[in-house]
Design a protein that fits this description.
7 helices, alpha/beta, Metallo-beta-lactamase, Chain A, seven-stranded mixed beta sheet
């Protein structure tokens, strides 16, 4: 299994759950775990209809929990202004079609991710030998087929802006998928990293269950381009974030987060890339 970069205890954001089932990490940012993946909610509590954004759309079956959290956090009938996607893997779009339809919400993604979101292209096969661990060995069973939200699909602008989220920018972080992006807010140095970096060993069922905090590169079994993934980690480290919400694992912040990111960028080929890959 790939090695890890330890996260210092003071860099791990305590898991304090709101009554809505989310874990707040900033005044207008919270995340919620759905079995093995996180979704993020961006918006001030009580913001109301069309005044918040959902980032990623969980695994199959997570729809009721996402709807309950959204209603409790933003208002009973509060629909999102948009659903933003870091990428289109099954555990990030599990209930995307249902939520986008029922909320009549636009979906925004990178142009290179569009084929996996308009029903036209399946992702490449998983690599069960990458990274070791039970989850990796089971990865050939994970869905690869595309979802189809073409009627509501929008391309993120080339200038890096995020139209539904003023003050945020999208950062290209390919490698895990061709069109993977992360979302960045300079004002408070907040990062929503998707799977470009994660804070648990996603290849291991035990690690997924206990959420032991440590910094990793992207889930190895679904990462075909390790050279691009390395460049993406370097780009995120260069941002010097103060807060990171990742697609898997607990949120992290402060000097410990930055030190771990720089260590991962420096030693990426040793600690993140599985033997014989990249």
């Amino acid at each position: 299994m790939a090695q890890q970069i330890p996260l210092s205890p003071d860099s791990v954001v305590p898991v304090a759950s709101d009554p809505d089932g989310t874990h707040p990490v900033a005044a207008d940012l919270a995340y919620q775990r759905h079995v093995l993946v996180n979704v993020a909610y961006v918006g001030t509590p009580g913001a109301g209809d069309r005044n918040w954004v959902l980032v990623d759309a969980g695994v199959f079956g997570s729809g009721p929990a996402i709807r309950r959290a959204a209603a409790a956090r933003f208002g009973a009938d509060a629909r999102p202004a948009a659903i933003l996607l870091t990428h289109g893997h099954f555990d990030h779009v599990g209930v995307l079609e249902d939520l986008a339809r029922d909320w009549d919400a636009p979906v925004w993604a990178h142009p290179r991710e569009i084929p996996y979101l308009d029903g036209s292209t399946a992702y490449p096969p998983a690599d069960p030998g990458a990274g070791g661990g039970l989850v990796a060995r089971l990865s050939p069973l994970f869905p690869r087929s595309p979802v189809d939200v073409s009627e509501r699909l929008h391309r993120l602008p080339e200038d890096g802006t995020v139209p539904p989220l003023p003050g945020w920018r999208w950062i290209p972080t390919p490698g895990h998928t061709p069109g993977h992006v992360s979302f960045w807010r300079e004002a408070d140095r907040a990062l929503i990293a998707g799977d470009a970096v994660i804070t648990t060993a996603q290849e291991s069922a035990y690690a997924v269950a206990v959420q032991e905090p440590e910094l990793h590169g992207p889930p190895a079994y679904f990462t075909p381009d390790w050279a691009a993934a390395e460049c993406s980690v370097r780009a995120l480290a260069a941002l010097e974030p103060d807060l990171a919400v990742t697609g898997h694992g607990r949120a992290a912040r402060g000097p410990g987060l930055r030190a771990a990111l720089h260590a991962l960028a420096r030693d990426f080929r040793t600690v993140a890339v599985p033997k014989g890959r990249g």
